[in-house]
Amino acid sequence: MKKTELNNLVLLLVVLLVSGIFLAMIADFLLVILMAAIFSGLAMPLFRFYERLTKGRKSLSSALSLTTLSLIVIFPMLAILGIVAAQAIRISRSAGPWIEQRLEEPTAFHDFFRSLPFYDTLNAYSDLILQRAGEMVSKTGSFLFENISSFTLSTVQTFFMFFVFLYTMFFFFRDGQGMLMKMLYYLPMPEKDTSRMLEKFTSVTGATIRGTFLIGIIQGTLAGVAFQLAGIDGAAFWGALMTVLSIIPVIGSGLVWVPAVIFLYVTGSFVAATSLLAFCGLMVSSIDNILRPILVGRDTRLHELLIFFGTIGGIGLFGIVGFIVGPIIASLFITVWEIYGETFKEYLNENMP
After folding, report:
1. What is the pLDDT of residue 149?
2. What does the alpha-carbon distance between residue 233 and residue 227 come to, in Å, rounded to a whole number?
3. Average pLDDT, whole number, for the chain?
4. Where are the bilayer-spanning segments (predicted)?
5. Prediction pTM value
6. Which residues have C-beta within 8 Å of that of residue 62, sequence separation ≥ 6?
7. 14-42: b or e for each residue (b if 16 or more CB lie within 10 Å)?
8. Which of 128, 217, 227, 237 has the highest local Cβ count within 10 Å?
9. CA distance 246 to 231
C-alpha cells in the first residue's frame, strides 16, 4: 500500500471515529436539531422577507422571524393546550368519583346491565367487571402520586428542549444555507443525486406537515362540535386529542370517536350514539381518506401504503415527531433505490421495468 493511500485510510478512520463520538455526544438532541432544520426551512420565506426589510442583517432577520412565529403559532398553541389541559384535569377528577360511587352501589351496575340488549351475556362477567374497575381506581391514585416527580422533570426537560429548538432555529435561519452547502459538498455523490434527494426531502416534508395539520384541524374541529352536540363532557379535549391522533392514517380519528360511540350506547343515549356514529363514520373519517392522498400523496408521489407504514413506523421509532420523520425516511428509501437502479442498470435484469 502506498504511503498516500495509507494516509488517506488513516484520515478516513479518524474522521469516522471523531464523527461517531460527536454524534453519540449529541444523540439526545438529534431529533430537536432535525425538527429545527425542517421548520426553519419551511419558514425560510419569512426570513427572506425580513432580510430584505432589514437590508441583509441576518441576525436581526432571524430574531424577527422567531418572534413572528412565536406570536402567530407558538403562543396561541400554548393557550389552546392550556384550555385542553384544564378540561383533561376536570374529566380525570370527575371520572374517579363516578366509578367509586358505582362501586359502592353494586346494584346500580346490575340495574344498568339489565337495561342493555346483551344483558344475558354481560351479566356473567359483571363481578369480574366490578373487580377490574375497583383495581383500576385503586391504582390510579398511586400511579399519579408516583409520577408527579417524573412529570415535573419531564416538563422541565420539555422546556429545555424547546429552548434548544428555538436557539437552533435562530442559527439555521442565519447560517443554514451555508451549512447545507457544506454538508452536500462532503457527500461523495454526483450533484444530480444530492439535488434529487434534497428536493425529495423538501417536498415530502412540506406536504406531510401541511397535509397532516390541515386534516387534523378539520377532523378535530368537526368531531369536537359533534361531541358537544352529543352531550359528551370535555368536547374541546377530545377534539384536540383527535387532532393529534389524526396523524395516524386511516385509523387515527377512530381511536377517539369509536369509544365515544360505544360509551353513549352503553349509557343509553341511543339517538346521540347513532348520530355520532353516522357523522364521524361518514364525514370525519372520509376527510382522511379523501384529503390525505391529495394533500400528502400527490406532492410526495408516495404510495398510500408507504405513507401509512412510514407514519406509524416513524411514530413507533421516533415518537410524536415520527409523523414527519417517518414519511421522509420512506421517501428517501424509495429515492436511493431509484438512484441505485439507474446507477447499476447495466448489471440488473434487462427484462424488468
Report:
1. 44
2. 8
3. 75
4. 9-26, 32-50, 62-89, 151-173, 235-256, 262-284, 305-334
5. 0.65
6. 47, 169, 170, 171, 173, 174
7. eeeeeeeeeeeeeeeeebbebbbbbbbbe
8. 227
9. 22
Residue for grid cell 430574531: 63
How far apart, in whole angstroms, are the C-alpha atoms of residue 251 and residue 53? 46
Query: Residue 24 and residue 30: Cα distance in Å, rounded?
Result: 10
Most confident of 162-171, 218-227, 236-245, 310-319: 162-171
In tens, the pLDDT along 68-103 reads: 888 877 666 666 666 655 655 555 555 555 555 555
Q: Can you tell me the mean pLDDT for 158-182?
A: 87
**Rg of the chain over CA atoms, in angstroms?**
26
Residue 141's pLDDT band (cuts 50, 70, 90): very low
All residues at 6 or more sequence positions from 249 whose CB lies less than 8 Å from its CB, including other chains: 288, 292, 304, 307, 308, 311, 312
Other beta carbons less than 10 A from residue 341's beta carbon: 12
Structure letter (DSSP) for residue 348: S
Percentage of residues of the chain with pLDDT beyond 70: 69
Only one residue has cell 364525514, namely 283
CB 62 within 8 A of CB 44: no
Query: Which amino acid makes up residue 230?
Result: A
| Residues in Cβ contact with 208 at an 8 Å cutoff, skipping those fewer than 6 apart | 296, 300, 323, 324, 327, 328
Query: Would you say 47 and 173 are in contact if contact means Cβ atoms under 8 Å apart?
Result: yes
